[in-house]
User: Fold this.
Amino acid sequence: MAADTHLEKETEQVQDIWNGGTEPMKASYGKLMMWYFILSDAFTFASFLIMYAALRVSSEVWPDPNAVFNSFPFLHGTKLPLGFVTVMTFILILSSVFVVRAVQEGHRMNQKGVLLWMFLGILGGLGFLGCQAWEWNHLIHQGMTFTSNPFGHYTVPEVVDGQTVDVFKGYVNLVHDHETGEFNLPADGKDNKGNVIPENATKHTGTYLFGCLFFFITGFHGFHVTTGVLLNIMIWIQSARGVYQRSGNYEMVEKVGLYWHFVDLVWVFVFLAFYLL
Amino acid sequence: MAAGHNDNAAYEKQKRAVWVATIIMGVVTIAEVAIALNWPESWGRGVLNLLFILMSAVKAVFIVGEFMHLRYEMRAMMISFLAPCLFLLWFLIAFMMEGQSWLALREFWN
Assistant:
């Protein structure tokens, strides 16, 4: 009789473990699985960025980011290198912080706090997407496609060791002719540094792969941001309906928060690869 | 829910940690852009790129450690998520070497 009860108790304990009763590494099943998903997603993004690195290393010339990303909305003609992308980075970091605050309020079972901070986090995500849409639109307008872009350079023939070779002289942002689709030298005849381009110079359009890699990688990141915003909105609605208040914990906010921070983390590396290096 | 005194103190502490992390990340981002725009060309790209990578690493540590809370999880959990990422280091080095080889080959055939 005593042995039976013992066995019964043990079976119950084992079943409890298999039903997620014991939390491995003191984190719930859902949280761990979100972490494993993030790890696999990190490898996907890393593969893209490492491919970018390989292709960039294999190119003789690469567009200068300070000359590519130098426009700001509503400020035509003013050149603000990296200005707009800094704003975008801040928006995304702040959005991440707002979601951390939502998670913290969730630990205190403060529904109003969760709703407020999550709302701000969603606004930040939408703001970032809006900025990205503007940036893409601007680059496409300048003539950037998957295979061509205006962020080129020019070479001048020079005699080196008795042979005439084209020597790289400087970067120049070409002007896209929307009717012919051609890329022309700027009307003032000056390169990005303000030096006059000599008559015998040959213009070259930007590195073939630049647009493809930019659109693909920032696009894949943007897709993640979009998904994150949708998840955040779902969480916000569930919180507003009091679902988590009733179930006694706000762990869903934490899990989706993890994904949202990961999107921010990826942006740090996209920012590094495309805008800084 | 009646939050105890200790809970409240821990909450305030966590709240402060997050805002401190935010400010540090903001300063690092501004510094990155400021350095990118003011770096003298004669100093070369090598040191500059190394600086950028280190500064991005600082930001990554704050996001993963503070925002994603990994710093406060069990050591086993930290290792199980961070150790696989070490493979990426070799992945990166191998493909950069591969890229250099592509460049050399292209120059050779030209």
Remarks:
- Residues 151-204 of chain A form one domain.
- The first strand of chain A starts at residue 151 and ends at 160.
- The mean pLDDT of chain A is 90.
